[in-house]
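Journal club side-thread
Mid-discussion, someone asked how the predicted structure for our own chain would compare to the paper's figures. Pasting it here so we can look after the session.
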Amino acid sequence: MAGETGSIGSADAPRTRRSLLGDLEALGVQPGMTLMVHASMKSLGWVAGGSVAVVLALLDAVGPEGTLAMPAFTGDLTEPSYWQRPPVPESWWPMIRAETPAFDPALTPTRMMGRVAESFRSWPGTLRSDHPHSSVCARGPLARTLTDRHRLEDSMGEHSPFARLYDAGAFVLQLGTDRNSSLHLAEHRSGMRGRVTQGAPILEDGERVWKVFEDLAYDDDSFPPVKAAFEASGAVRVGQVGSAVARLMPVRGLVDFAAEWFREGKE
C-alpha cells in the first residue's frame, strides 16, 4: 500500500489508458512503430487499472500494425558466482546450479523488470525469445522475427532480438527509467568487451541441464556518459507520460552513436 500511496501523491488526477495514450502520441509514438519499452510503473503516477492499463495504452499507441517489445530478463538464472544483488554464499552455488528449474518461456517470471514488463510477458499473444538470461517479449507483426533464433552465446548481440530491433528501425521508449538494453548491442559492435563463462538451467533434448557457455562481459557502468551525450545531440524526444519523464529515441541512431563512442574510448 505504501507504493500506491506514493503514486497517488505524485499525480494531480488518476492516469488512465486514454490519458496515457494521449501522452504517448504527444511524445511521438505512432501507429506502426516497433517499440522497445522500459517502464517504471511507480513513476507513471496512480493509474486506473495499473500495469494492464499501461500495456493497453502502449498497444493502442502502436496499433495493430505496430510491434511492442519489452525485456524479460531473468538474472536469477545466471551463474551464481557473479551475483551481487544480493550475493549468495559460495557453499550455495552447487545447489543453485543443480536445483534451479530450467528456463521456460511460458512459465519463468521476469526478475527486476517491473510490473509493466511482467504483465506484458503473460499477455495473450505475446511471444518470448528462448534465452535463459536475456529474453525479450514481443507482440505484433514482427514479434516472431524479433524473438526467433536467440542464440545462447550471443544474448544481446548480433543473434539476438536487439539486433533485430536495430534491423527493424525500432524505437526505444523509456518511461520513468534510464534503462536501455539496446546499448548492449553497441558493446558488441564496438569490440570493447571480452568474454566470460556463464551458465544457466535449460532443457536440452528434453532434460534439464546446467549449461555452461561463453557470453560477452556486459557492463552497463559505462552507459551514463553516452546516454547523456546522445540526448545532447538532439536525437532524443523528451516529454511526460503520466507523471513520468519519458524519452523516445531511434535504436539505430543510439547503437551507432554508442558503438563509435565506445570505440573511441570515451567511456
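Post-session note: Residues 156 and 185 are 6 Å apart (CA to CA).
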